[in-house]
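Exercise 3.2. Students should predict the tertiary structure of the chain below and write it as structure tokens, then compare their answer with the key that follows.

Predict this chain's 3D structure.
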Amino acid sequence: MNAERAHLVDAVLQRFFSLSKKRATPLGAHYEHLWGLLERNTQGGKRFRPRMVMGAYAGLGGTDMDAAAYVGAAFELLHTALIVHDDVIDRDFVRRGIPNISGAYRDSAVDRGVATDIAEHRGVSAAIIAGDLALFNAYRLIDKSGVGSPLRERIVEVLDEAMFASAAGELIDVDFSIDPGMPLVDDILTMERLKTAVYSFETPLQAGAILAEADEEVVTTLGDFGREIGIAYQVVDDVLGVFGEEEATGKTTIGDLREGKRTVMIAFASSTPAWSRLGELIGHADLTLAQADEARDLLVQCGARAFADDLARSYAQRALTRLAEPCIPQRLRAELHPVAETVLDRVR
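Answer key:
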């Protein structure tokens, strides 16, 4: 997203949080503090969702970038809500190298002498409240965009679809974590599409197209593009979660291995002879750095990493094919082609 568009989205979020903290002040310093932590959780991200909204809107000739910024900010706030709740589900207390909302409240309680289990409960409780606030207000930002009916109702429906699908994907992921069996690659791709790709790519693109009053064929095709590139992005993200550089990704490269996270790579590896050893290594909280390196070597040797890389490239190429549809104007292709290239660059 170019600097001007990013500035517009940031301005919307800054105004929103400024007003929210002002409203919270009469209700107590603790509540204002929670809003401050929630605001911090919206900062420092890639702004992928607003980029999809505003790229689609501008590429289809839209000119009211202020309205588009509100819609983009709504999807960013939805993203914030989902990752805050996801951290609760995953029992994570750190994000991007610093305490998340759960971690901040847990740590402050521990500093006051509260027992660890009670402090952790306090942390996750605060995070649930914060995520609820972000979720509800994502819809409120659409209301404040100035977009009239019936476009506003259609955009709200798209935002609702994003939330509805993500909840389904999250539930599937939760079930994966306790299932002793290994899900199929297709099942993992379905989970990743529902949990992340729908709200990060498919529906933001469609919202931008709806705002630009595009033909239904364009809205549908952009959803198809978003589905393919979103799946590609998630497959790459899982690869980088094991093989990436922590300085670049902002997250540990041992966490997924310790968790035994069900990814395309792990599903593939489970069908190879390497699994007899790899299955013993992953899924243990005390996995050492040396054992993690051994697990990475096994994922390479058995072809799991190459399989995931090839799969990501295939989905990215399918996404580019959707952009070549006659209904997609050249200006929109120019806006979105770099998105696919970014995914391809991550696996080169």
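Discussion points: Strands lie at 94-95, 98-99. The mean pLDDT is 93.
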